[in-house]
Amino acid sequence: MSPGRAAVVGRPVGHSRSPDLHRAAYAVLGEEIAYDRQELAEEELPGWVAARRGDPAWRGLSVTMPLKAAAAACADELTELAAAVGVVNTLVLRPDGTVLGHNTDVAGIVGAVRAAGHVPAVPAVAVLGGGGTATAAVAAARELGARSADVFVRSSARAGGTAAAGRALGLPVRLRPWEEAATALAGYDVVVCTLPPHGADELAAALGRAAPTTTGVLLDAAYDPWPSAIARAWSAAGGAVAPGLDMLIFQAVDQVRLFTGRSLGEPLPREQDVIAAMCTAVGRPIRVAPAVPRNRT
Questions:
Q1: Domains of the chain and CATH, by start
Q2: Catalytic position from the list 68, 94, 102, 114
Q3: Is 1 exposed, middle or buried (0-12, 13-18, 19+ CB in 10 A)?
């Protein structure tokens, strides 16, 4: 059998660590899957995916910005979770020529947060930003056991997708003014920053001036540069910090499951060895898979 193929698609993708993660995982599993990068503009994605439908070599695509919204339209079927959040970061190219869309960012957030520190059974969760990753953060809040999520945004008009995701998931979402974040964040058990690199630098400076104390966990989805200003400020306040690289690791585990023909609920052979190899490949301390039930649909 010829080797399988998979890739990360987006623009830009030259900085992506996904090839390091996937190649390390497939080496542990003994899977012959070549994983590459492919730079694509939004308008190029549908044709590129269509050209690979039914090709037995192609297993799937990891989708990064700015293609996550466009990727959903390329799928014939969405998992329940992907349909709820409205954003897809994984396309599975199935042998029958159909394409399945899923969002593994949710599992990535949950895994990274739980690996970083203690999360109470019913955590108070805050999300910074209202874009595509924020919808995944809202879904992750539900998975972590939250009964609601507060989303801090500069413009509520741009956070419609996040509010819609909350309604679809049955999780109340409250949009809060960005200006309230600096004084409110220390009171949350979990904070997920979904802003691009340097997007929370001013907030970090405000936190530094306020000098709060916290025992919560902060996940900053941006992983370069690291540590970010918001991560440094949160750590100085006494909180635990999860880098976006850990989120990337844990979300890639579910992609590896799907790209090797397994279901989302099916453990990988030597799963902890796979995670350890992925961590090593990107220079992170070895993390342990969270031993908690997750909604896999």
A1: 4-104+247-281 (3.40.50.10860), 106-245 (3.40.50.720)
A2: 68
A3: exposed
